[in-house]
Amino acid sequence: MLQIQSKRFYLDVKQNRRGRFIKVAEIGADGRRSQIFLALSTAAEFRGHLSSFSDFYASLGSPPNPDNLPEDGKLKSEMMTKDNRRYYLDLKENSRGRFLRVSQTIARGGPRSQIAIPAQGMIEFRDALTDLLEEFGTDDGGFKGELPEGRHLRVENKNFYFDIGQNNRGIYMRISEVKTNYRTAVTIPEKSWSRFRDIFSDYVDKMKDGGSGGNEDGRL
């Protein structure tokens, strides 16, 4: 935990199927909580930016003059990109002082979240990141094994294809239904496979027990 002026910052390394990341939570003096998420490789890039922002901040010298502030408050800006996320780094100043605002956005209109680090604490924040990166490295990790081969199933005049893929959101299964002049597909995230399996299994058991749900010839 970092205490920087009236704010507390918690930096925790987490892991999911996409890999390892750092959750940064900011708790303000009023108890409000904000958080962003950084892949380890992004955290390493952020650490470098913190050094350059700190050097720039040190070169500014005297505290800001409330009567002579930049129109938008920005003194220096950078941007980082990781998969479908963008991070905007803005060193700003207002009547209360100087601070680094870190905003995280997700492509396609996702939610925007941000934290604000008091400028005096950027070096301390960088050092805390360094400690975590030295312990856990900068490799994001994630699933690196060989994905299963695709499968094919023919039912009457339909063909079903089961293909396993991976993107920046994780592993998924795409089930395609193909007929003459017709094709449709659904994509199921890996974390939901077991739930789909349980539902299918439940219906299979119910039909074995004499349940009804289709015509006598087995067609829906």
TrEMBL record:
<comment type="similarity">
    <text>Belongs to the PUR DNA-binding protein family.</text>
</comment>
<dbReference type="GO" id="GO:0032422">
    <property type="term" value="F:purine-rich negative regulatory element binding"/>
</dbReference>
<dbReference type="GO" id="GO:0005634">
    <property type="term" value="C:nucleus"/>
</dbReference>
<dbReference type="InterPro" id="IPR006628">
    <property type="entry name" value="PUR-bd_fam"/>
</dbReference>
<dbReference type="GO" id="GO:0000981">
    <property type="term" value="F:DNA-binding transcription factor activity, RNA polymerase II-specific"/>
</dbReference>
<dbReference type="GO" id="GO:0000977">
    <property type="term" value="F:RNA polymerase II transcription regulatory region sequence-specific DNA binding"/>
</dbReference>
<keyword id="KW-0238">DNA-binding</keyword>
<dbReference type="GO" id="GO:0006357">
    <property type="term" value="P:regulation of transcription by RNA polymerase II"/>
</dbReference>
<dbReference type="Pfam" id="PF04845">
    <property type="entry name" value="PurA"/>
</dbReference>
<protein>
    <recommendedName>
        <fullName>Transcriptional activator protein Pur-beta</fullName>
    </recommendedName>
</protein>
